[in-house]
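Record 1 of the preview.
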Amino acid sequence: MQWLRSLLFIGQMYLAMAVLAVIYLPWALFSPAGAHAACHAYCRWVFWTLGWMVGLRVEIRGTPPTDEVMIAAKHQSFLDIMAIYNAVPRGKFIMKRLLMFAPILGQYALRIGCVPVNRGKRGAAIKKMLEDVEKGHQEGGQLIIYPQGTRVAPGVSRPYKVGTGALYEQLGQPCVPVATNVGVFWPRHGITRKPGVAVVEFLPRIEAGIDKEAFMARLEAEVEAASDALLDEVGFRRDE
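->
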């Protein structure tokens, strides 16, 4: 029964994406504010239907930033993308360039200021983004990056990539680490969404100006420790 409820939820979730994209299209074409409004509306719809269709609720802990910062987050599934984005006013992601060509998703991502990058060319993309913000061609906001570079299942170890440290150094902005346990309830693969409370936790910020290596060590230690604590909170067994 939970599998069927999850399947129905997923179907309506993607249908809602298309419907809201069309409804908000004129505003989104006119202004990035319209694209942000569309994306926030979509996240709220997903969270609402997730609750009564699947029995899964999303809880935000800590203080989501509203100023210009870098957010470095644990990434376990599509759910943490929506939860982090919806918690901040002007979120934008470092994303794979290939996603630019995804129907609906890619075009809205560009309108909200996401930064598409090719492997090995992140520095040039970030430099252009910073120049666009300075010239007023693009709004500032909260730049979201996943230090492990991909979705990582709960309990699985994966190294943090040094590019996050380089970005922290290049931006010269504080970094807000984010921990989560959403992968327990909304896994990377498969259809079933489990009932419960999935948590995304904004941790205390790391101020700008720290040595890159020291920053990376602190970031990994804090995010992993907090994410492990959230896993323990829901009784996740690491040998599963």
